[in-house]
Amino acid sequence: MRNIARRITRKQRSLVLIAGMVVATFAATMPATGSTPASVRTGGEVSAEEQATAQPVTEEAAEEALATAKKIKRNQSVRGTRQVVPGRHVAGRPDATIALADLWNAKEALDGSNETAARELLARPRAATQTCSTAVCVHYTPGKGGDRASVAYATQVRDVVTKVHNIYVKAGYRKPAADKAVTPGKVDIYLENLYDEGYYGYCAPETKVSKTAATAYCVLDNDYATSEYGSFNTPTENLRVTAAHEYFHAVQFAYDAGEDRWMMESTATWVEDEVYDSINDNRQYLGYGQLEDQRKPLDNSYASNLGIYGNWIFFRYLSERFTRERGDLPAVVLDVWNRAPSTYSTLAIRRALAARGTTLKTQYARFAAANLAPSKNYSEGGAYYAPVYDGRTALPAKRQTVDGKFTLKHLTYASQRLVPKKVGKGWKLRIKVDVARPSANAAVISIFRTDGTRGVYHLKPNSKGIATKTIEGFSSKRIRKVEVTFANASSNFKCGQGTAFSCRGVASPDKATHRWWAKTYR
User: Fold this and answer.
1) Nearest-angstrom CA–CA distance, 458 and 282
2) CA–CA separation, 417 and 388 (whole Å)
């Protein structure tokens, strides 16, 4: 789902994160649904059958889902006092697609007036007419003002969404499951004035068609007028990237309408730029993801609802690392979604990587190192945010040993920057690391030279987690900086624990404390 946004600076990002904390995301308290497993293993793989077993939704959790979903509808909104803040977030408002999907997954636990309210919230909008292609039907009310849309615009939406549909089908993705009643065999798109509700668009699951899959309908804005959405993108550009993003949600529901929300939103944001490469709308969310906020778990869907968009960068890393395409899209993300119905997000990623002869630990550590130099590691990285670090130590020309430590949650990383300060010839730098639980954690040393070249060394700790690296010629003339990066790739979960992480579970183990020492000598 795409919320109204404006472009941001790095200083503004911290204000947004504070504002986002007022939103208590429903996903953090709802028991596992859809394909999310009800029980967990802390080591080894879990059978597909176990992964597909759903934990019953409690009445309390269902009522919370209902309360959250009510906030997205106009007659329940803060219309007239809506505050738009940077990023895909309206203060006090939930993500519409996530809220409706959560309500859909929880609706069976409601009864009486609550059941009626849920049914009304999940109901399709109304429209007077439609225009259809072979794949989709666009429903709208002709005219100007309010929820009405012009015939020409409705036709444009039909053509744009049909193009997006064909790209996804050519790339091997499942077709969205179409309803059998309104327009049999076609996916329905509705046009409304969404600006007043604070959104670009959303999709909602509707009818269950398998243990995990559901039909879907989508809602897009009725004009994306510049007077409402601003002029950074044209109305056509906003339509295109929103259609790519939202229709991908309809595709996702054809796999698993209960999949982990971070993967739903991150891959939907990733695919925007794959389908419409020249628009680059998703770059504005990088400041919320691990390119800049690496101490929040990659799979965190809680509270601010912002990192789930910015972490599209992880899937960009994978798609640039594993470049084989199917149709016009990288195949690696397709392979993840093909595994999603029988498991949860991070396990699906692990299995897709295993099929490529690698591991999540290896790729997550390389991802962490790549983010230290976006312009060197991503095809469009020169336009990304500048890299960040967690600690910085200047090392003058004297014999000394400095040390430090990082305690990292699952799927997070941190970097210590070491900088030579007026250091001449003949000096060396010896780095020692103590990597906790090296089976799931890793350490990388990146050397940035003054001539613009870079050396990246993936350390191989011994059985006790100890590894060393000596850097010859540690002088200010040769070395600009050295980064010591630790990555915690722990991805075994005790599922169904009411968190907002993978399978709504708790990583087991979660935290890991890593230590480093740096010695200058000659």
Assistant:
1) 30
2) 10
What are the residue boundaries of the structural domains of the chain, listed by start?
55-258, 391-521
How many DSSP H helices and E strands does the chain contain? Answer: 15, 19
Answer yes or no: are the C-beta atoms of 106 and 62 closer than 8 Å.
Answer: yes
Whether the CB-CB separation of 167 and 116 falls below 8 Å is answered with no
- End-to-end CA distance of the chain: give it in Å, rounded: 57
Contacts of 124 (CB under 8 A, 6+ apart): 182, 188, 190, 206, 217
**φ, ψ for residue 6 (rounded to 5)?**
-135, 165
CATH 2.60.120.380 fits 391-521, yes or no: yes
Amino acid in position 233:
N
**What are the 10-residue block averages of pLDDT along the chain, 522 residues in total?**
52 39 38 37 40 67 91 49 34 78 94 95 96 98 96 98 98 93 94 92 96 97 95 96 98 97 97 97 93 94 79 98 96 98 97 98 98 96 90 95 97 97 96 97 98 97 97 97 98 93 94 97 96
Q: Is the pTM of this model over 0.85?
A: yes
Q: Hey, what are 324's tokens?
A: 């084989």
Is 36:260 a contact under the CB 8 Å cutoff?
Answer: yes
Q: What are phi and psi of 256, to 5 degrees?
A: -160, 105
